[in-house]
Amino acid sequence: DNPAHAPGKLITRLASDAPNIKAVVDARMLQVIYALSAIVACIVIAFIYCWQVAILGTSLILLLAFVMIGLAYKISVMNIEQIKNDEAGRIAIEIIENVKTIQLLTRCDMFFDHYETASKQQKRSELKKGMIEAINYSITQSFMYFMMCFTYAVGIRVIYQGDKSSDDTFKGIIAMMLGAVAVMNSAQYFPEFVKAKTAAGMLFNIIYRKPRTGDLMEGDRPEIRGNILFENVKFSYPQRPLQPIMKGLQWTALRG
């Protein structure tokens, strides 16, 4: 009875969400774990040899992390809106299921127009997400050069003032550079992880949703030893309370 759980929408969700989740539970997940481990190790090494460079490099990495979190949140919101307004998949499945009826009623052109409109709406949403993902990609893939610029500027100042030896300073700079490379290697999987997060949320919402009409497997199970009488039973689905499915139902089941 819930419009979000129409057969077409459920089939679309299961057909798209499960592959989106599966896409990150492979070598890409390991790559991200390797990158995070490398970043932590590089930050520790940089602090050991030159804390001035390490503080700057860590600040840049944290700034990039906040930017990526903001972009991920924006894309997640767009994904949820796109899923809620995804009519193209539902229309396509309903057309396939009722193709003979549509042909007999000579409504092929009308349904094709509906599908084309829904597909164009999906395309516009994907283009908007593509722009955000492009911004993220350009920032992360050029992050090493920003790191190089700032860390060398601070490192030269540290060497000039004699706070650290050139050997230790360059070790700290190289450590932060390797951390930036780890960021670049893992950030390319950003779109897949954002899609997987949204898809997992939608799938688990479907799995753990409790119907408002009650759970079939819960409730009392009395042992009945007599006749059963339904007298003037009324029922309507929660989504359509003014459209009763049963009204004045009378029904009797005799013992045995």
UniProtKB/TrEMBL annotation:
Q: Which GO terms describe its cellular component?
A: membrane
- PROSITE patterns from the entry? ABC_TM1F
Q: Where in the cell is it found?
A: Membrane
Q: InterPro entries from the xrefs?
A: ABC1_TM_dom (IPR011527), ABC1_TM_sf (IPR036640), P-loop_NTPase (IPR027417), Type_1_exporter (IPR039421)
Q: Which residues form a coiled coil?
A: none
Q: Which Gene Ontology molecular function entries are recorded, alphabetically?
A: ABC-type transporter activity; ATP binding
- Principal location: membrane
What membrane topology does the UniProt entry give?
Multi-pass membrane protein
Q: Which Pfam family is one of this chain's hits? A: ABC_membrane
Has UniProt tagged this entry with the keyword Thylakoid? no
Entry annotated with the keyword Transmembrane helix: yes
ABC transmembrane type-1 domain: from which residue to which, for each copy? 1-195
Transmembrane domains' residue ranges: 32-49, 55-75, 134-160, 172-190
Entry keyword set: Membrane, Transmembrane, Transmembrane helix
Q: What is this protein called?
A: PGP-14
Organism of this sequence: Caenorhabditis sinica
Q: What is the lineage of its organism?
A: Eukaryota, Metazoa, Ecdysozoa, Nematoda, Chromadorea
